[in-house]
UniProtKB/TrEMBL annotation, chain A:
Residues 48-195 form the Thiamine pyrophosphate enzyme TPP-binding domain. It comes from Mesobacillus selenatarsenatis (strain DSM 18680 / JCM 14380 / FERM P-15431 / SF-1). One of its GO terms (molecular function) is iron-sulfur cluster binding. InterPro entries: 2-oxoacid:Fd_oxidoreductase, OFOB, PFO_beta_C, THDP-binding, TPP_enzyme_TPP-bd. NCBIfam families: PorB_KorB. The lineage of its organism: Bacteria, Bacillati, Bacillota, Bacilli, Bacillales. Residues 199-264 form the Pyruvate ferredoxin oxidoreductase beta subunit C-terminal domain. It is an enzyme of class 1 (oxidoreductase). This is 2-oxoglutarate oxidoreductase, beta subunit. Its cofactor is [4Fe-4S] cluster; Mg(2+); thiamine diphosphate. PANTHER family: 2-OXOGLUTARATE OXIDOREDUCTASE SUBUNIT KORB (PTHR48084:SF4), 2-OXOGLUTARATE OXIDOREDUCTASE SUBUNIT KORB-RELATED (PTHR48084). SUPFAM superfamilies: Thiamin diphosphate-binding fold (THDP-binding). Keywords: Iron, Iron-sulfur, Magnesium, Metal-binding, Oxidoreductase, Thiamine pyrophosphate. The keyword Metal-binding applies. Its EC number is 1.2.7.3.
UniProtKB/TrEMBL annotation, chain B:
SUPFAM superfamilies: Pyruvate-ferredoxin oxidoreductase, PFOR, domain III, Thiamin diphosphate-binding fold (THDP-binding), TK C-terminal domain-like. One of its GO terms (biological process) is response to oxidative stress. Keywords: Oxidoreductase. GO terms for molecular function: 2-oxoglutarate synthase activity. Residues 474-569 form the Pyruvate:ferredoxin oxidoreductase core domain. PANTHER family: 2-OXOGLUTARATE OXIDOREDUCTASE SUBUNIT KORA, PYRUVATE-FLAVODOXIN OXIDOREDUCTASE-RELATED. Its EC number is 1.2.7.3. This is 2-oxoglutarate oxidoreductase, alpha subunit. Residues 209-449 form the Pyruvate flavodoxin/ferredoxin oxidoreductase pyrimidine binding domain. Residues 14-175 form the Pyruvate/ketoisovalerate oxidoreductase catalytic domain. The keyword Transmembrane helix does not apply. The lineage of its organism: Bacteria, Bacillati, Bacillota, Bacilli, Bacillales.
């Protein structure tokens, strides 16, 4: 069985020293090993941005796509091969700005993949512009007078879109994050994990210390029940979204693959492409 | 006796015009006639003039006809809009309900038949289209029993009574009109050969071709005139284990299709101009990552929303050059429904063999025009997957990556799909080295760019140009692509009668352009007429780029939203002499 070391490749990430994404990478590698995957069983599909490079830093199949489109690519991969474990990942700009449409629809479609967002509340690779996760008043190169737009609340949004697995974590909580990714992979449906992953270069507000001060662990809230959607929403609103842990999980709703009529039990990628003549003749006769 | 008939039924959208045409044409198709139907419709569900023009012939037809024999009108607008197409012996059959007025400047005869009233008497005004079919049968002296089978199929599940009522409506229309006609001469069609043939639209053929080629997944967003492809596949793929996902947008459709192809299933997406504009970035991703991708572009009137339900061929340049940067891409254009079937199947082979985007270009007339099709030969559908690894792969040392982008002589590298042991490699839209890892080295850039572009320099495509070139030295070479083929073929016959030596080249492979083959044809003609449904002459310009001879090449353009008529091609070509 593969250990997490086997999910390491020999590529040196081009992230800044201290970037939160390093820990997310480590957590993904550990989670993959912990759930018993071999490197070839995993496909990591990523978007564009600093965090989008992650698919190139894991020893597994990896597809670094185009900005905002990690999710549709990942869903296509999973539909082609239901036996693969598919993780989509990218930044908050990728998932909540340019790719927001896909995020909402991937949530409601509920295909069995895991989506890990590295949320640093800033555009890093383009050197410091506002993100849809930047708080009102946040000053950046593109908002010199401070952002006047409302920040998106991805966890609340996911709940209203019909998510079946919603979790949030902090990149330094390696153990918790690893456990959440494992749970996300095992979840039968679409799992969304938003990870606060500080940008040490361009975000001087939402720093490691800032998160340590402001985050509340759901495990510390007595009686918190992740199967209660209404309570999950209330808790998120009470804490301004700054909670970590498993926020909500619905184990009853079936995944897309289980619901779609006629969908092959074996991966479509292994299907025999040849149609038999009788089947073809039947299709032809329908046009006569 | 006539061997060809042109029949048109018109009225307000949502009034059953489509089903009238459908029942009429299916029944005649089953008698062995060749049909060609073209619908005039608007981008709305209820209201607005719509018509369905159907040509019936004892020989194969691939174009709408110049004129009209019978016009069935459910409202005055239908008469006013269409009567000029009627020739002097033509007939208007109109619903008496709207008190039809025959325009003064037509020689055609008109019969007012109480379609609505008779249908209402039989139970429901909905059957007025059946009365109209009966009236048509009287004019054609056609035995109404030919409709029984079709009526049974369509209404059978509603019970025998409904079937009987509908047949009664046909009979009532027939008898009433027969009496009206008195001794007037009928238009009797020559007997057809009785062969059963398929009757389908181009989009049906594309979808069937995809199924035959092993396509098991589609991601698409609804759009006119492409939606029939997804609608067919969602009905048929589940029986084969596959499915269709209607995505949230066009970008999701194409990127999901790329993901599915990367994942190892044969997958397709289809759209029209607006959708293709949105897919452009992803087409570049398929190009640089060398991921097979099959896209159908059913051209319609552009730009923007343009003329969404009308004929146009103005996406040509966008499909050849679209996406930023430079990628290998294959663009081809079937010109008949049969070709659309074989081409759709072949698209998957080309996409896998050359590991690049393949765009299958059609146009509204080809995609939606319903026609009789000679039998499709399933044996001709091959499945070729190029350099896709099927055997176990040799072990790779210490986390070395598989050389997915190995620089090879033909430019095509070995391909593996996720899940294969020892096949791990990276895929990225960033310029990359042989294992897929990002690289900005100048030498690598040149090596990878050359490798990719080299792939299609030796492209093997069956029939890059459909040729009908009987003359070694021709007065005129007519060039077209997609659905103009039928009109051009008919015009050629007429030009020959005028004493001109005419060759015809219908471009099937648009990109990479078959320059050498076209050069020979151009050189052996005094003049070249390029027929296309756009305002700038895109194909003519591509011809000039590839074969020169600018002084010889004449553009014959039509961009009013309607297909070329044979007579238009004939007249415009004649004007060149």
């Amino acid at each position: 069985m593969a250990t997490f070391k086997e999910f390491r490749n020999n590529v040196k990430p081009n992230w800044c020293p201290g970037c939160g994404d390093f820990s997310v990478q480590a957590a993904m590698q550990r989670a993959a090993a912990n759930v018993g995957l071999e490197p070839e069983d995993l496909a990591v599909i990523s978007g564009i941005g600093c965090s989008g490079r992650i698919s190139g830093y894991i020893n597994s199949y990896g597809f670094h796509g185009i900005h905002g489109r990690a999710l549709p690519i990942a869903q296509g991969v999973k539909m082609a091969n239901r036996d693969l474990t598919v993780i989509a990942s990218g930044g908050d700009g990728d998932g909540f700005a340019i790719g927001m449409g896909h995020t909402v629809h991937a949530i409601r479609r509920n295909i069995n993949i895991t989506y890990i967002v590295m949320d640093n509340q800033i555009y890093g690779l383009t050197k410091g512009q506002t993100s849809p996760r930047s708080a009102a008043g946040f000053k950046t190169k593109s908002t010199p007078a401070g952002s006047i737009e409302q920040a998106i609340s991805p966890m609340e949004l996911a709940l209203t879109a019909g998510a079946t697995f919603v979790a949030q974590s902090f990149s330094t909580d390696l153990k918790d994050l690893t456990a959440l990714i494992e749970a996300g992979i095992k979840h039968e449906g679409f799992s969304l994990i938003n990870v606060f992953s500080p940008c040490v270069t361009y975000n001087k507000v939402n720093t490691y210390d800032w998160f340590k001060e402001n985050l509340t662990k759901l495990g510390d809230i007595e009686g918190y029940d992740p199967s209660n959607r209404e309570a999950a929403m209330q808790t998120l609103m009470q804490h301004n979204g700054l909670v970590t842990g498993l926020i909500y999980q619905n184990t009853e709703r079936k995944s897309y693959q289980e619901l779609v009529s006629g969908y092959s039990e074996t991966p479509l990628s292994q299907a025999d492409l040849k149609l038999d003549q009788a089947h073809f003749d039947k299709l032809v006769a329908e046009f006569m | 006796m006539i061997n060809q008939l042109s029949w048109k039924v018109g009225g307000q959208q949502g009034e059953g015009i489509e089903s009238t045409g459908e029942i009429f044409s299916i029944a005649l198709n089953r008698l062995g006639y060749y049909l060609y139907g073209y619908r005039h419709f608007s981008s709305r569900i209820k209201g607005g003039h719509t018509n369905n023009k159907i040509r019936v012939s004892t020989t194969e037809v691939r174009s709408i006809s110049d004129d009209l024999d019978i016009l069935v009108a459910f409202d005055q607008e239908t008469i006013d809009v269409n009567y000029k197409e009627l020739h002097e012996n033509g007939v208007i059959i109109a619903d008496a309900k709207f008190d039809p007025k025959k325009p003064e400047d037509t020689q055609a005869a008109m019969y007012a038949v109480p379609f609505t009233e008779m249908a209402t008497e039989l139970g429901t005004s909905l059957m007025k289209n059946m009365v109209a079919i009966g009236a048509t049968s009287a004019v054609l002296d056609l035995d109404i029993q030919v409709f029984e089978e079709v009526v049974q199929e369509i209404f059978g599940r509603k019970g025998q009574q409904v079937v009987d009522k509908n047949m009664e409506a046909i009979k009532a229309g027939y008898e009433y009109t027969k009496e009206q006609l008195g001794g007037a001469e009928t238009m009797q069609l020559e007997k057809a050969d009785g062969q059963k043939r398929m009757f389908m639209i181009g989009n049906d053929a594309i979808a069937l071709g995809a199924v035959a080629a092993g396509c098991r997944f589609m991601a698409a967003y609804p759009i006119t005139p492409a939606s029939e492809i997804m609608e067919y596949l969602i009905k048929k793929l589940p029986a084969l284990g596959g499915t269709v996902i209607q995505t949230e947008d066009e970008i999701a459709a194409v990127t999901m299709t790329i993901g599915a192809n990367y994942g190892g299933v044969r997958a397709i997406t289809a759209s029209a101009g607006p959708g293709l504009s949105l897919k452009m970035e992803a087409i570049g991703l398929s190009g640089i990552t060398e991921t097979p991708l099959v896209i159908v572009d059913t051209q319609r009137g552009g730009p923007s929303t343009g003329l969404p339900t009308k004929q146009e061929q103005s996406d040509l340049m966008a499909m050849i050059y679209g996406t930023h940067g430079e990628i290998p891409k294959i663009v081809f254009a079937p010109s008949t429904v049969q070709e659309a079937f074989y081409d759709a199947a072949e698209a998957f082979n080309l996409a896998e063999e050359y590991q690049c985007p393949v765009i299958m270009l059609t146009d509204l007339q080809l995609s939606l025009g319903k026609q009789t099709v000679e039998p499709l030969e399933f044996d001709k559908v091959e499945i070729r997957r190029g350099k896709l690894a099927t055997e176990a792969l040799p072990e790779i040392d210490n986390k070395g990556y598989f050389k997915r982008y190995e620089v090879t002589e033909d430019g095509v590298s070995p391909r593996v799909i996720p899940g294969m042991k020892n096949g791990i490699h990276h895929v990225t839209g960033v310029e990359h080295d042989e294992t897929g890892k990002p690289s900005e080295s100048a030498a690598n850039r040149i090596a990878q760019m050359d490798k990719r572009m080299r792939k299609i320099s030796n492209l093997k495509f069956n029939t890059p140009i459909h040729k009908n070139a009987p003359h070694e030295e021709a007065d005129l070479l007519i060039v077209g692509f997609n659905s103009t083929r039928g009109a051009i073929e008919e015009a050629m016959g007429r030009l020959a009668k005028d004493g001109l030596k005419v060759n015809h080249a219908h471009v099937r492979l648009v990109h990479p352009f078959p320059a050498d083959e076209m050069m020979q044809l151009v050189q052996s003609a005094k003049k070249v007429a390029v027929i296309e449904n756009n305002a700038t002459g895109q194909l003519a310009n591509i011809m000039k780029m590839n074969v020169g001879s600018h002084e010889k090449i004449h553009k014959i353009l039509k961009y009013d939203g309607n297909p070329f008529l044979p007579q238009e091609v004939h007249t415009k070509c004649k004007e060149l002499f």
